[in-house]
Amino acid sequence: MRSFLEEYSRLVGLLLLSFVFIFLFSTPSMILAKTITTIDTELSRASGTATPVRTLLDFGNNEHIQAFPRQVGEWTAANDYNTTQVAESLGAEVVLLRAYKHPKFYQPVIFLIVQSNARSSFHPPIVCYPAMGYEIEEEGKAKIEVQNLSWVEKPLYAAWAGEGTGGERAWAASRNFNDTISAKKLVVVKKAAAGEVTERLVVLYFYVKESPFTSENITLVRVSALAPTKGSYDGVLGVTKEFLGESVPRMFEPRREEERVIFILLDLGSVVGKVAVGLLLLLPLLLLFYPQIKRLI
Hints:
This protein is α+β, with helices and mostly antiparallel strands.
């Protein structure tokens, strides 16, 4: 009578070999099942341009958000606004509404961070502005250049000989690193009774999204500025993009690329890594060919 091992060795061996291959070609985050936070232009669906990040701010802590730097590059906080009305209209628990000025620009930007755990009562800008009497003149997306080299970093688990700024730049160039994020763009206007435009705003915003299975929180980051009522708004758009690009590294750090486990093991050393990978593959192969090996013995 054949033993259990002889009867099912091939099945067990194939299953184990499959698990080994899945393990070797996974990343540490996939194995540990960490929650991935992204910044994205769409709230209820994936836009296809989401950027994986790690948060540096606790967006659910009002004191932490209020402590957001008052100096952002050359931008200086000019005024903090009362947020009671904003919090009530958005059903928000945490709100920061602040104006920043730059010595080279006559126009301040208005910076908003808001978090709510009431998805049903949360109104995105595309809904809020019309509710406040604005008309949407234009809607689209904008690419924001992130103004910080910490966003051009080598993978967390990859071996890299270069050090310092030069090394980081060289790695980024070799991997064709893209140091931009996507933001939603709105141009909204308010008109007088006669139809004349009395106010025009350029608005950039994105959402901070976590897995819906782990968090119901909604976080919006928005920058807006007044634009000329007629003609081009490109100058103001450039100003808002510059401020947002300076702000992002103060809220997030990039989620570094990770090497596959097999390459991490091989990087342990020319002998140790190869032995580790070999042993992981050897056990299922021994089970797979156990009947043949037993006959030979």
